[in-house]
Amino acid sequence: MNFLLRMLLSALAVVLLANILPGVSVSSFMVALIVAVVLSLLNFIVKPLLIILTLPVTLITFGLFLLIINALIILLADALIDGFAVNGLWWALLFSLLLSLLQSLLFSLLKEKKS
C-alpha cells in the first residue's frame, strides 16, 4: 500500500514539475504514473551500474557527478516513454533536482510520527 501511495505522489510531483518547467512536458497523469514507475525501476537497476562504472569520476568530483547520472536516468526515461519529453541535459538536471526535493517533501507526509 505504501509503495502505491509513493508512486501516486511521485506521479503528482512529475505533473507539477511538468507544469512549472517549460523544458519538461507530460501528456497526462497516466503517463506521469508510468514515468514514476519507470524512474523507480531505472533507479533500482541502472543507477547502481552507472555509479560503479563512473566511480573514479564520482570520487574526483566529490559526488557531484551523481547529479549528471540522475539527469541521464531522466533522459533515459524520456527515450523510453511516449508522452514524456525533456528538452536536453540541463532541463533533465533541473527536473531531477526539483523532483528529488518535491518527493522528499511529499514522502515526509507519509512517515508516521513516533510517540
Automatic annotation (TrEMBL):
Pfam families per the record? Phage_holin_4_2
* Domain of life from the UniProt record: Bacteria
The alphabetical list of record keywords is: Membrane, Transmembrane, Transmembrane helix
The record's InterPro entries line, in alphabetical order, gives: Phage_holin_4_2
Q: Where in this chain does the entry annotate a coiled-coil region?
A: none
Transmembrane residues, as ranges? Answer: 28-46, 53-77, 89-110
- In Swiss-Prot or TrEMBL terms, this protein is called Putative membrane protein
